[in-house]
Every structure is written in structure tokens, then in C-alpha cells.
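INPUT
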Amino acid sequence: MARSNQSQFALLGLLSFGAMSGYDLRQLSGWSVGHFWRESYGQIYPTLKKMAAEGLVRRKTEVNPGRPDRHIYELTAAGRKELYRWLERPPTVEVPRNELLLKLFFGGLVPPGVSAEHVSQRREQCRQELATYRATRERLEKEAAKDPQKPFWLMTLNYGEHIARAEANWCDETLKELGEKKRQTKRN
Amino acid sequence: MARSNQSQFALLGLLSFGAMSGYDLRQLSGWSVGHFWRESYGQIYPTLKKMAAEGLVRRKTEVNPGRPDRHIYELTAAGRKELYRWLERPPTVEVPRNELLLKLFFGGLVPPGVSAEHVSQRREQCRQELATYRATRERLEKEAAKDPQKPFWLMTLNYGEHIARAEANWCDETLKELGEKKRQTKRN
DNA sequence: CGTAGCATGTAAGTTGTTACATGATTCG
DNA sequence: CGAATCATGTAACAACTTACATGCTACG
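OUTPUT
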């Protein structure tokens, strides 16, 4: 068992940037680790509670007049230690499920236009992702120009760009092949 | 709700190649869709049972003397129809979690050697994946030379190769950057 | 005045993994 | 003779998503 609670470590990591609320964690994760890691509120709030009970984080309540209270979570020494121990363990790889590929694998069962449409949509998504990466890069250059952690953030961004470009290229190649298939089918 | 039971469709798809047992499904998925889709027995057997109850598959028992019985599952007309309907729906994308990137994102918290070691291990995994793809490609050329579905299988294989190469390149670049970082750290 | 954002959380359901249980046969 | 493969399945649990519930404020 022990699937080792990855969400927990993601949150611990984000909290290393400073004390935050569950809401903040969600927002921050959106533009920082958003392209390779996402957490839902339904996951964040219970995990924070559990970590507080285990002494990995400390909870403080910030009372704001005319606004909902904010529950700010802060790393404890124990939490920081856990985080470091996790960072040093080698990451485990698992096969990511890819619905597009699964459908394409069975592409022979449906008219070729169906697969082409799926790939074409993916192509467009890649284009959008690449645009987002460019924007994030500019934002990083401005807002984190001097941050010592910036190089690491750029590395993860580079990863996204490498993969998105590769995926886009594959889409283009595949669309060409599917196009030929379509013509062949029409002739028969 | 309705997370739309992806595993179910994967199994329906594999069953379109012919009637099979749960065990067979697992084996077949290993080398066919293995690099982008995996199912465990704990998922396969209950799903088959459920689909049989819903009339998407038909179960036949093959009695073998001196061996465990084999439960062979076969697509029904309803199952086939469900499969086609699913194939035509546009695939949904979800952000795949990447533990390596998550650790790298927080790389500033640990000595640079730690991140380098993680990336280096990933580099080696890419090498192995590429070797597997080459082997699968050869196997496909031989064993499925005339299969009309072969082009689709090759497309999914191409995808794997594109991504693995991109990932390998990224690893190399990143290792270089991390190497420089290490030297800088040592000098300070 | 409606919508979006701020802000917290719970409940119910689904999906998936891992470990366990069983027992025969084949191969080295 | 021990390990791997064939073959099926269950139980326990972990993880995650979605929808719901609440209510205020700022903005157009």
C-alpha cells in the first residue's frame, strides 16, 4: 500500500515559499506547477487538515472584517524535514494514461476522419500550451529576475516546451498520414 | 460525476481484436498499449464482471483439464456500439502528474547533486524506452505486416518515440545546466 | 443587479492500487 | 526443487473528482 501521498508533498513544497491558505495554494499552483501538477480543493483542504494533525504544518486564523476568515498554513520544522526527505528520494515513474492515443490505437474501427479530428484538436491544444509557456517565461523573467530558484522553474518550463513541440510535430506528421489514408479510402 | 469509466473502454477496445480472458487482456495490453495505458488485474476482473452484467460483453467458460478454467469474454453488439460511440467522442486532456518535475521545481531547497541524480536517472529510462520502441517496431513489422490496423499502431509508437526523444534532449540540456550550478556552488 | 472572485469546507461517489489467497504446471 | 507462468479473483484502502453549501464584496 502506501501510495505515499504525493499531494501532501506538493503542498509542503508550495508552502516552502511562505505561509498560505488553501485558496492561495490552489491559485499559486495554477501558474507555477500547473502544467504538470494540479490539485483540487477537495484534495487540498482535507490534506491540510491531516498534515496539521500530524504536525507537518501549523494553522493560524486570520480574521478579516467583512470577509471570510483565512486559514493560513505554515511549515513546521518537522514538515520541512519531511519535504527534504521526499525531495531526495528518486521519483517514481508511472505510465500516464493518454486517451487520445488509446482512441487512435483503435482508429481502424472508425472512419479515418474521426482520428484526424482528434489529432487536429490536440494540435491546437499544443499551440495554446506553447503560447502559455511563452507568457509564463516572460512573467518569470520579470517577476523573479533575481530569485535563486528561478533556474529550476525555468527547467520545468523548458520541459513543457520540449514536450509540447514534440507533440505538435507528431500531430503534424500524423495528420499527414491520416490525410493520405482518407484519400485512399475515398478512392476505393 | 460520471468519470466515464475509461478502463471499460480500453477493455472493450482490446476485445475488438477477439475474445479473450482477463489474463490475456493484461498480457496483450503489455506490449500494445503498454506505453500509454495500463490496467491491473484488480481493475480488469471487476470491470469485466460489471460489463457482463450490463450486456456489453458475453462470458464463456473454457474448461481445461489440469488447468484453471479460462473465462473468455467476447464483445456483444451492444458492446461494440458503445465502443464506437466512445471512439468518436473527443478525447479529454488532463494534466499528467510528473513527480520528477515537481521535485525539480523545488530543487533550490536541496544540494544540486540531488536534482542532477534524478534527471540522470530519467535520462537512462528514456534510453530504455527508446530501445523498447525499436524492438516493438520490429515486432510489428514482422508480425503485423499486412494488418490493416498496423498504421494506427505505428502512429502511437511514433508518439512514444517523439516524446522520449524530446525528454532525453531535455534531460541532456538540464544536466548541463545543473552541472554548471554545481561548479558555481563549489566555488562559493 | 448579475457575475466573478474571495474563501472555506463537506459528502458522495468512483477509480485505482496493492496485497493476499489459491493451486497447478513447466522449465531450468 | 525452486522459480516462474498460468489463471482467477477479493478485500482493504488510498486517492481523487464533482457537486453542493454558504455568503460576502467589487465591478461593470
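end of record. The mean pLDDT of chain B is 92.
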